Amino acid sequence: MPASQTGTFRRVAYTGWSAFRFKDPTFPVWIGAAILLVFLMLLPLGAIFRASLWDDTGITLNRYFEVFTNEQFLKAIWNTLIISTWVGVLAVITGALLAFLVTRTDLPWKKSIRALVMASFVTPPFLGAFAWTLLAGPNAGALNKLYRAATGSEEALFNIFTMPGLIFVMALYSFPFVFSMIANVCELISSDLEDAAEILGANKWRTAWTVTLPLAMPALIGGFILAFLQSLSLFGAPAILGLPAGLHTITTQIWALFQYPPRLDLAAAFSVPLLLATMALIAVQKKILGRKGYSTVGGKGGQKRLIHLGLGRVPVLLFVFGILSLSVFLPYWILLKAALSKAWAMPLTSDNFTLHNFSFAFFEYGDTQRAIYNTFKLGIVTATLGTLLATLIAYVTHRNLFRGARYLTFFALAPLVIPGIVLAVGLFIVYTRPPLVLYGTIWILFVAFLTKEMPIGFSQAESTFKSIHPELEDASRIIGANRLISLKDITAPLARSGLIAAWSFIFIGVIRELSAAILLFAPSSKVVSVVIFDLKEEGQVGVIAVLGTLMLAVSFLVILGVQWFAGRDVVATRE
Amino acid sequence: MANVSIRGLTKQFAEVAAVDDFHLEIGDGEFVSLLGPSGCGKTTTLRLLAGFLQPDGGEIRAGGEVISSPTHLVPPERRQMSMIFQSYAVWPHMTVAQNVAYGLKFKKLTKQEIEKKVIKLLGVVHLAELKDRYSAELSGGQQQRVALARALVVEPQILLMDEPLSNLDANLREEMRFEIRRLHEEFKITTVYVTHDQAEAMATSDRIAVLDRGRLVQVGRPSEIFDRPKTRFVAEFVGKANILTGRFDGDGLLHLGDGVKIRVNSTGEISATGQVAVCLRPHNISLLADDAEARRMAEQGYNLFPGTIRRSIYFGDSIDYTIELATRETLRVITPPSQRYESGQEIYAAAHPDVCVIVRHE
Predict the structure, then answer these.
(1) Which among A5, A23, A478 is the nearest to B81, CB-wise?
(2) Of A92, A229, A438, B129, which has the most beta carbons under 10 Å away?
């Protein structure tokens, strides 16, 4: 080919291997993002398997042997299974019932109920658990004091530091997951199917039982698995409520293995079963939810007639608000009270009122200022870079930019199956030794959060791209914009509200994260959730309440901001 | 300037050839339509031309230079082309003027020059007053005009159009056909136009390329395609067609069976003595009931088909008759509304040999 070809069409000559790499001048960006993602996911997982299998002498199964013969470890696994099963069952019952009532009956105040379910969703479980120690601690718990005052009894009515107590609290903060899942399904089940049953003579409730329920069955099982997984990977709530009673779960046991003297190898070996269990359950869930034959649940929802509750409306409404007061009203009330009083257990009178907790938390107590700064810095940086990376990856997979691009979906969603604490074990092993020592800085937390929040950012970005016609971008490319410029000028602005939602989800996820942070923080890189956990040991109830209130307030402000901006329901878009 | 030369172009999707050994030479300033049913590979060909797809075989040259081949691919943004999309693809977050100005951003122009060009083009497509509107505030036809202005303002070497009118209602579609042809006369940009609508292709194009299952079947001026279809597929896809089959028997006549023999438009191409097909357009056949007149026509060399009227449909500006021939085959004939015949009436259908065109049977 002559080298001196010039003219109308400026051409870059490419041959062989370089043709693959530089076919498109923006190619390095896409392949770079892909490689970054793959490394982000593979490094910690690889480290865990390596640390659990290798020692100085070579491959060994000794660690697994040690873990699975130790009675204490086995007990922790057993506890976890019991707790998660109960949480799954309770969350499905509550979540499905509420979802059914909100979508298929004429219950009043549905908007408020949905908003309150979302509030439970946004509340970090460790904060809920902490609030419940104030409500139902055996000695000073507000509800127990009320009970004693009312009955004159010496006994406590509730003791939250028990396995039932722990299950109860974890279920309170898991049911919103099931709720949103079931509510979607209920909205999609066509009334025609139910009408058919009614024409055949079934009454409304019988129809609900024989038609609606079986149609919702895959979603119910999926919801159970979701809640089960959620409680499997929780660290904060079991640590706050279980540890004082000597009750270990897998996550708290992993954490204990990090305390002095640290046994990283055992922690790694102990993480593997948790990882495998999560993967297996996700696979089962996908299979159940992806089954055909339920195509009725997936079309457009037709006109739905609502079941009339009649006289039952009042008791049903009381029941619903009863549940929501357990997850939202009571915990928020006690947190606010604790934040504003000198002695949290005393009534909030003018003598007991104080703003000292706020000034102490923000200006005096050493750790908090830095922790607040770290938290917001990490939140903003992770959300920004996370949204950017998720956007690039979602773009690559959606447009199938190079061979194998669709497999990136697998990597972007992989953290769904990695419990936070397991991820932290892997990252700890990777980043405490050369070539990249991040431990001791907040950047190891950044990497952890970026990895952990990738699935949310990715799914949000992907569903946003799906709604944008590819021709809009082709139109800019053909008149002179390369891929990157097209993404910046056309696709990104059109995806703006979706990407802002992605940013917010990542931000909220980061500022409430505890289970990974608890293993990766160093004294200078504490974040708010870790400080709350530490302060718990010191009994600094007022400061915890202030920080918890701050965390909740910021989360709600961000959500309101997104809703205002996007003019749509955040819970709905998160699905 | 930019002539386009497509040689042996091939593109496969999952082992199926969407475009198969496609050859076409397009002259500078020529307007060529790719016409075919859905799935014939015309849109794939267009996307190959645009550089959105890379061919698996063959090459595309523009202005003499290879722009697409299995090993070379000039990215779309460097091809100096423009494209009009089926969905219009008017960017909803930009005003009409911003949409049109966008492509000029990539040329080294001053703000004033850009503004001047945008205003001029908006005038050409009659959108000057709407320049500050967003696409949500425009009708389909107006959006299509924005897309046209946006594509033309960058002064492309080649303009690609992908079924640009298929989302418009019938009246607007007709109007826009003339509009597209007018703009082509004005700018003389080499244009490749993809459509499944033969009337659109006829109204706009210098030449039409008919595609079937990834292959080019025939290319020619609209009248050539209509009057001299080479294959049965082209005959039936472009316009209405009666297809009769028969065999040559060495006497130069086509035997249709039952003793019916006709003279056909002899083409050197068909030398076969086997089964062949002949295409007769319904408009090119006349009906006559009078025996004497029929004899006169026969003497003038017309082919005569005795038959019976089986059905007639009155359309106001024409009547559509179905005639059953002695061979049990049927013939559709479209006549002016003045020629009225009764159902069941014995009749002659007459067609000049020139309009009895031998087509390849496929």
Answers:
(1) A478
(2) A92
Q: Which CATH superfamily includes the segment(s) B4-232?
A: P-loop containing nucleotide triphosphate hydrolases (3.40.50.300)
* CA atoms of A514 and A536, how far apart (whole Å): 14
The tokens for A367 are 């750790």
d(CA A284, CA A279): 9
**Structure tokens of A158?**
């509730």
Residues B63, A8: C-beta atoms closer than 8 Å: yes
Judging contacts by C-beta atoms under 8 Å, the chain A residues touching residue B159 are: none
Is the bond preceding residue B75 a cis peptide, omega within 30 degrees? no
Q: Domain locations in chain B?
A: 4-232, 240-359
Tokens of B255: 């035997």
On the question of a cis peptide bond just before residue A435, with omega within 30 degrees of 0, the verdict is yes
Strand order, beta sheet including B357-359? B260-262, B254-257, B242-248, B275-280, B357-359
Query: A475 — contact with chain B (CB < 8 Å)?
Result: yes
The CATH number for B240-359, chosen from 3.10.270.10, 3.40.50.1820, 2.40.50.140, 3.40.50.2300, is 2.40.50.140
Contact B207, B187 (CB under 8 A): no
Select from A150, A182, A124 the least CA-distant residue to A550.
Answer: A124
Per-position pLDDT tens, chain B of length 362: 589 999 999 998 877 888 999 999 999 999 999 999 988 899 999 999 999 999 999 999 998 899 999 988 899 998 999 999 988 899 988 999 999 999 998 888 899 999 999 999 999 888 889 989 988 889 888 999 999 999 999 999 999 999 988 888 888 888 889 989 998 998 899 999 999 999 999 999 999 999 998 899 999 999 999 998 988 899 999 988 998 888 877 667 788 777 777 888 765 555 555 678 888 999 999 998 888 888 898 888 888 888 899 999 998 899 999 999 877 888 999 999 888 888 888 999 999 888 888 888 76
Question: Model-level pTM?
Answer: 0.78
Residue B111: how many CB atoms within 10 A of its CB?
9
Mark A120-136 as b/e (b = at least 16 C-beta within 10 Å).
bbbbbbbbbbbbbbbbb
Contact residues on chain A for B71, CB-CB shorter than 8 A? 14-15, 19
With vertex at residue A102, the alpha carbon angle to CA A96 and CA A105, rounded to the nearest 5 degrees, is 105
Query: Which residues on A lie below 8 Å from B166 (Cβ)?
Result: none
Do A11 and B67 count as a contact with CB atoms less than 8 A apart?
yes
Which phi and psi (to 5°) does residue B239 adopt? 85, 175
Could you tell me the domains of chain A?
Answer: 61-328 (1.10.3720.10)
Q: Which residues pair with B65 in a beta bridge?
A: B62
Please tell me which of the candidates A10, A475, A493 has its beta carbon nearest to residue B83: A475
Interface check for A292 against chain B (CB to CB < 8 A): the answer is no
In order of A276, B264, B304, the CA distances from B301 in angstroms are 87, 10, 9
Strands B57-62 and B65-68, by their bridges, are antiparallel
Q: Residue B160: list chain A partners with CB under 8 A.
A: 478
CA distance A48 to A424: 10
